[in-house]
Design goal:
The chain is α/β, with parallel strands linked by helices. The protein has one domain: Alpha-Beta Complex (Spore Coat Polysaccharide Biosynthesis Protein SpsA, Chain A). The protein has six helices and nine strands. The strands form two sheets. A seven-stranded mixed sheet has the order 3-2-1-4-6-5-7, with helices on both faces. Strands 8-9 form a two-stranded antiparallel ribbon. It is globular.
Protein backbone atom coordinates (compact mmCIF):
# COMPACT_ATOMS: atom_id res chain seq x y z
CA UNK A 1 0.00 0.00 0.00
CA UNK A 2 1.45 3.35 -1.02
CA UNK A 3 0.22 6.92 -0.74
CA UNK A 4 0.76 9.74 -3.19
CA UNK A 5 0.50 13.33 -2.07
CA UNK A 6 -1.13 15.38 -4.84
CA UNK A 7 -0.72 19.14 -4.57
CA UNK A 8 -3.06 21.21 -6.73
CA UNK A 9 -1.27 24.46 -7.61
CA UNK A 10 -2.31 25.19 -11.20
CA UNK A 11 -4.75 28.10 -10.96
CA UNK A 12 -4.18 31.67 -12.07
CA UNK A 13 -5.26 33.11 -8.70
CA UNK A 14 -7.35 35.82 -10.34
CA UNK A 15 -8.72 37.12 -7.03
CA UNK A 16 -5.21 36.99 -5.58
CA UNK A 17 -3.77 38.90 -8.53
CA UNK A 18 -1.22 36.16 -9.40
CA UNK A 19 -0.99 32.37 -9.31
CA UNK A 20 -1.02 31.18 -5.71
CA UNK A 21 1.91 28.91 -6.54
CA UNK A 22 3.97 32.11 -6.90
CA UNK A 23 3.03 33.58 -3.50
CA UNK A 24 6.16 33.73 -1.36
CA UNK A 25 6.94 30.35 0.16
CA UNK A 26 3.53 28.73 -0.34
CA UNK A 27 4.56 26.14 -2.91
CA UNK A 28 7.61 24.96 -0.97
CA UNK A 29 5.60 24.86 2.26
CA UNK A 30 2.84 22.78 0.70
CA UNK A 31 5.35 20.31 -0.80
CA UNK A 32 7.12 20.01 2.55
CA UNK A 33 3.87 19.14 4.33
CA UNK A 34 3.57 16.07 2.07
CA UNK A 35 6.90 14.58 3.17
CA UNK A 36 5.06 11.67 4.83
CA UNK A 37 3.72 10.45 1.48
CA UNK A 38 5.54 7.84 -0.59
CA UNK A 39 5.45 10.04 -3.70
CA UNK A 40 4.53 13.67 -4.26
CA UNK A 41 2.89 14.99 -7.43
CA UNK A 42 2.68 18.75 -7.94
CA UNK A 43 0.16 19.93 -10.52
CA UNK A 44 1.13 23.26 -12.06
CA UNK A 45 -0.61 25.27 -14.76
CA UNK A 46 -0.66 29.07 -14.92
CA UNK A 47 2.91 30.37 -15.22
CA UNK A 48 4.22 26.85 -14.57
CA UNK A 49 7.75 27.68 -15.68
CA UNK A 50 7.95 30.42 -13.03
CA UNK A 51 6.57 28.14 -10.34
CA UNK A 52 8.76 25.12 -11.10
CA UNK A 53 12.00 26.59 -9.62
CA UNK A 54 10.20 27.46 -6.37
CA UNK A 55 10.04 23.74 -5.56
CA UNK A 56 13.83 23.75 -5.26
CA UNK A 57 15.63 20.43 -4.88
CA UNK A 58 12.63 18.61 -3.40
CA UNK A 59 11.88 15.23 -4.96
CA UNK A 60 8.51 15.56 -6.67
CA UNK A 61 6.86 14.59 -9.92
CA UNK A 62 5.68 17.74 -11.70
CA UNK A 63 2.61 17.55 -13.92
CA UNK A 64 1.41 20.48 -15.98
CA UNK A 65 -2.36 20.71 -16.46
CA UNK A 66 -2.41 22.41 -19.85
CA UNK A 67 -6.16 22.99 -19.54
CA UNK A 68 -5.79 24.56 -16.08
CA UNK A 69 -7.81 27.58 -17.23
CA UNK A 70 -10.98 25.43 -17.30
CA UNK A 71 -10.92 25.12 -13.49
CA UNK A 72 -9.82 22.99 -10.55
CA UNK A 73 -11.36 19.89 -12.12
CA UNK A 74 -8.64 19.92 -14.79
CA UNK A 75 -5.90 20.03 -12.15
CA UNK A 76 -7.47 17.20 -10.19
CA UNK A 77 -7.84 15.02 -13.28
CA UNK A 78 -4.22 15.68 -14.27
CA UNK A 79 -2.96 14.83 -10.79
CA UNK A 80 -4.87 11.56 -10.58
CA UNK A 81 -3.86 10.59 -14.13
CA UNK A 82 -0.19 10.95 -13.13
CA UNK A 83 -0.48 8.26 -10.47
CA UNK A 84 0.68 4.78 -11.30
CA UNK A 85 0.60 2.03 -8.67
CA UNK A 86 -0.30 4.05 -5.56
CA UNK A 87 -3.24 2.69 -3.58
CA UNK A 88 -4.44 6.00 -2.16
CA UNK A 89 -3.76 9.69 -2.59
CA UNK A 90 -3.93 12.70 -0.35
CA UNK A 91 -5.17 15.81 -2.17
CA UNK A 92 -4.21 19.21 -0.87
CA UNK A 93 -4.16 22.79 -2.13
CA UNK A 94 -1.35 25.31 -2.39
CA UNK A 95 -3.42 28.06 -0.73
CA UNK A 96 -3.59 26.52 2.76
CA UNK A 97 -0.58 28.20 4.40
CA UNK A 98 -1.51 27.27 7.97
CA UNK A 99 -2.04 23.58 7.21
CA UNK A 100 1.13 21.80 8.23
CA UNK A 101 2.58 18.32 8.29
CA UNK A 102 0.72 17.60 11.54
CA UNK A 103 -2.63 17.92 9.74
CA UNK A 104 -1.36 15.77 6.88
CA UNK A 105 -0.16 13.07 9.27
CA UNK A 106 -3.45 12.99 11.14
CA UNK A 107 -5.42 12.47 7.93
CA UNK A 108 -2.90 9.89 6.68
CA UNK A 109 -3.48 7.88 9.87
CA UNK A 110 -6.79 6.69 8.38
CA UNK A 111 -6.95 3.06 7.16
CA UNK A 112 -4.49 2.26 4.41
CA UNK A 113 -6.96 0.74 1.96
CA UNK A 114 -8.12 1.36 -1.59
CA UNK A 115 -11.59 2.14 -0.19
CA UNK A 116 -10.59 4.86 2.29
CA UNK A 117 -12.40 8.19 1.94
CA UNK A 118 -11.59 10.84 4.53
CA UNK A 119 -11.04 14.55 4.79
CA UNK A 120 -9.81 17.06 7.30
CA UNK A 121 -12.41 19.02 9.21
CA UNK A 122 -11.90 22.24 11.12
CA UNK A 123 -14.32 22.56 14.04
CA UNK A 124 -16.68 20.24 12.19
CA UNK A 125 -16.45 22.03 8.82
CA UNK A 126 -15.08 19.78 6.03
CA UNK A 127 -11.95 21.06 4.31
CA UNK A 128 -8.63 19.90 2.89
CA UNK A 129 -6.67 17.70 2.63
CA UNK A 130 -8.79 14.86 1.29
CA UNK A 131 -7.68 11.21 1.36
CA UNK A 132 -8.95 9.07 -1.52
CA UNK A 133 -8.46 5.33 -1.90
CA UNK A 134 -7.88 4.16 -5.47
CA UNK A 135 -11.40 2.75 -5.63
CA UNK A 136 -12.79 6.31 -5.55
CA UNK A 137 -10.58 7.75 -8.29
CA UNK A 138 -12.80 6.94 -11.31
CA UNK A 139 -15.82 8.57 -9.66
CA UNK A 140 -13.81 11.63 -8.65
CA UNK A 141 -12.41 12.02 -12.18
CA UNK A 142 -15.89 11.70 -13.70
CA UNK A 143 -17.30 14.41 -11.43
CA UNK A 144 -14.33 16.83 -11.64
CA UNK A 145 -15.47 19.48 -14.11
CA UNK A 146 -14.96 23.22 -14.22
CA UNK A 147 -14.15 24.63 -10.79
CA UNK A 148 -15.67 21.62 -9.11
CA UNK A 149 -12.93 19.33 -7.92
CA UNK A 150 -13.99 16.34 -5.82
CA UNK A 151 -16.87 18.21 -4.14
CA UNK A 152 -19.69 16.63 -6.15
CA UNK A 153 -18.29 13.15 -5.54
CA UNK A 154 -17.67 13.65 -1.83
CA UNK A 155 -21.12 15.02 -1.01
CA UNK A 156 -23.08 11.76 -1.46
CA UNK A 157 -20.23 9.46 -0.40
CA UNK A 158 -19.87 10.90 3.13
CA UNK A 159 -16.13 10.80 3.82
CA UNK A 160 -14.89 10.24 7.35
CA UNK A 161 -14.18 13.63 8.90
CA UNK A 162 -10.83 13.88 10.67
CA UNK A 163 -10.99 16.77 13.14
CA UNK A 164 -7.94 19.06 12.77
CA UNK A 165 -9.28 22.33 14.20
CA UNK A 166 -6.79 22.06 17.06
CA UNK A 167 -3.93 22.12 14.54
CA UNK A 168 -4.94 24.73 11.93
CA UNK A 169 -7.80 26.87 10.64
CA UNK A 170 -7.86 25.12 7.28
CA UNK A 171 -8.82 28.37 5.58
CA UNK A 172 -7.80 28.71 1.98
CA UNK A 173 -6.35 32.12 1.23
CA UNK A 174 -8.24 33.63 -1.64
CA UNK A 175 -7.54 37.32 -2.10
CA UNK A 176 -5.04 39.95 -1.16
CA UNK A 177 -6.05 42.71 1.24
CA UNK A 178 -7.94 45.55 -0.47
CA UNK A 179 -4.93 47.80 0.09
CA UNK A 180 -3.03 45.69 -2.42
CA UNK A 181 -0.61 44.38 0.23
CA UNK A 182 -0.21 40.78 -0.89
CA UNK A 183 1.73 39.79 2.21
CA UNK A 184 -1.52 39.68 4.24
CA UNK A 185 -4.09 37.84 2.12
CA UNK A 186 -7.64 37.23 3.26
CA UNK A 187 -8.99 33.72 3.77
CA UNK A 188 -12.19 31.78 3.14
CA UNK A 189 -13.66 29.27 5.56
CA UNK A 190 -12.87 25.63 4.80
CA UNK A 191 -15.49 23.78 2.79
CA UNK A 192 -16.46 26.82 0.69
CA UNK A 193 -14.59 25.72 -2.44
Amino acid sequence: MTTAGVLLAAGAGRRMGRPKALVDGWLAHAVDTLAGCDTVVVVLGARAEEARPLIGERTVRIVVAHDWHTGMGASLRAGLAALTDETRCLLTLVDLPDVGADVIQRVLAQPDTTAVLARAAYHGVPGHPVLLGRGHWPGVVASATGDRGARDYLRPHAPTLVECGDLATGRDVDTAQPSGDRSHPTARQPGTD
